[in-house]
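User: Hi! I'm working on a homework problem where we have to compare a predicted structure to a textbook description. Could you give me the structure for the chain below?
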Amino acid sequence: MEEESKPGQLQMDNMSALQQHVAFFDRNKDGKIYPWETYKGFRAIGFNKIISLLSAVFINMTLSYPTSHSKIPSLLFPIYVDNIHRGKHGSDSEVYNNEGGFDPNKFDAIFNKHACTYPDRLTYEEMQAMLKGNRDVNDIFGRIAAKVEWSLLYKLAKNKEGCLEKEAMRGLYDGSLFEYFENQHSASAQPR
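Assistant: Happy to help. Predicted structure tokens:
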């Protein structure tokens, strides 16, 4: 017999890729991501306190209202996972569609167009070229958001050669990369 889901609890099976991407940061799985949960999520994957704090402030302040269920903003700045598609910004890779679904053709296009050195990974310079190519005219916020997101991803997931591998980037889009780094970070923090 199938177990019924409880109200407010996230069910990964019914989530879009974008919802899965942000669900990692919903530390108590209530469908809302508060700034302290964003902070804890960033700390869990290995970022320092300053980057975690700045990320929590920036992310929650920019995504809270667009994802809200109300026209009145909350001063606690929650991000609602079910409405995360409303927070999609311009100047992005367009791998997430307008409903938050994953578009494998757009994902592969990143590598077909920008992976010149290796077919399955991006160098730092190729990542920068991709960001430049994705810029929308007069979209300052989208440019900044994309630059910050990809810079954090690069800092987190670059390999020993300084490249972002295709599998790591795929894990970013469905959120599994965060689980991987949380496990890596907690394992390295264990006393030996």
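For your comparison, note the following. The helical segments are 17-23, 35-44, 49-67, 104-114, 124-134, 140-157, 166-174, 176-189. The longest helix spans residues 49-67. Good luck with the assignment!
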